[in-house]
Design brief:
Elements (H helix, E strand, L loop, with lengths): L6 H8 L4 E5 L1 H14 L17 E4 L5 E6 L6 H7 L15 E5 L2 H5 L1 H4 L1 H18 L8 E3 L12 H6 L2 H15 L4 H4 L10 E2 L3 H4 L14 H16 L22 H30 L1
Parallel strand pairs: 1-3, 1-4, 4-5, 5-6
Antiparallel strand pairs: 2-3
Helix pairs in contact: 2-11, 6-8
Length: 290
């Protein structure tokens, strides 16, 4: 069950910690939606078109900075620095982000001549995943690697449609999935492990997309982005906030440990059936002998 986060809920979870987004225009649009959930007074887009390919720094009224770094290839030295935790004094260092979101892929396809295309993306992604997993201190409480977004080919401009092929995007997402989760579904089936993993890949982001929700085949409307931003908060916060009955945020978290009373009631319910069966069987055998 997804929970719809309010600024107050988010503030309790994030506790004035920093949030960092790094990536392309798709990541940037998600960043603004996320920031607006934390503080409805924050903008939903850059102030003007000239700032689309720029960094952005916002401050929530509830405390904490939300930053976006423009790095569509995720190859800037600053991105490497974010993933290297040697500068952190402790796992709870205040400079360490509560959430780090990384998104790239489509620029590698769109500008394949200068980026070396999909093969370069695979090399760079493999390096990042390995770097995050090898750190003794994770670069953030939770690092999210966004799936490469599926495009609507019929709505792309001719220039984009030539290089952004759905088959390539599917191949990239398959590669990314197996790098993040080398053990596959066996890991994901172990309930509640999201809170103890260094990287999460929200594959569901692509399942939320529909051709009717985009005009250019690439950027989706605010309603979709709002839902995706809320999923990020569920991933980061559901396991951190108190778990009280009735549970209303059951995804992306470990279930609370049952109380002694709950365990006792469960034991009695499960034991009642075998007890009645044994008792009935004994009574039947007694009647037969008599």
């Amino acid at each position: 069950m997804l929970y719809t986060y309010t600024p107050q809920d988010s503030a309790k979870c994030l506790n004035k910690r920093n949030i960092v987004f790094v990536g392309d225009s798709i990541t940037r649009k998600l960043f603004f939606q996320f920031a607006n959930i934390l503080d409805v007074k924050l903008p939903l887009a850059p102030l003007d078109e000239s700032q689309k390919h720029s960094d952005h720094a916002l401050h929530s009224s509830t405390g904490g900075n939300i930053s976006f770094y423009w790095d569509p290839f995720l190859n800037h030295s600053r991105t490497t620095d974010l993933l290297t935790t040697l500068s952190y004094d402790a796992p709870v260092d205040l400079n360490r982000p509560a959430l780090l979101v990384l998104g790239s892929g489509l620029w590698y396809l769109r500008h394949a001549n200068e980026s070396d295309g999909m093969s370069a993306w695979q090399v760079n992604t493999a390096r990042h995943v390995l770097m995050i997993k090898q750190q003794s201190i994770w670069p953030a409480d939770l690092t999210v690697m966004l799936p490469v977004e599926r495009v609507i080919s019929t709505k792309l401009t001719p220039e984009r449609a030539i290089t952004m092929h759905p088959s390539d995007i599917d191949a990239m997402n398959t590669d990314l999935y197996h790098r993040v989760y080398p053990d596959g579904d066996r890991v994901l089936s172990e309930g509640g492990r999201f809170g103890r993993m260094p990287i999460v890949l929200p594959k569901v982001f692509n399942d939320m997309l529909d051709a009717s929700q985009t005009e250019d085949g690439l950027h989706y409307n605010d309603q979709v982005l709002r839902a995706q931003a809320n999923i990020l908060l569920n991933l980061r916060c559901n396991d951190a906030l108190p778990k009280k009955y009735p549970l209303n945020k059951t995804c992306c978290s470990r279930y609370p440990t049952p109380s002694l009373m709950h365990v006792l009631v469960l034991f009695l319910v499960l034991a009642w059936g075998p007890y009645i069966w044994v008792r009935t069987r004994k009574s039947g055998m007694g009647l037969a002998l008599s």
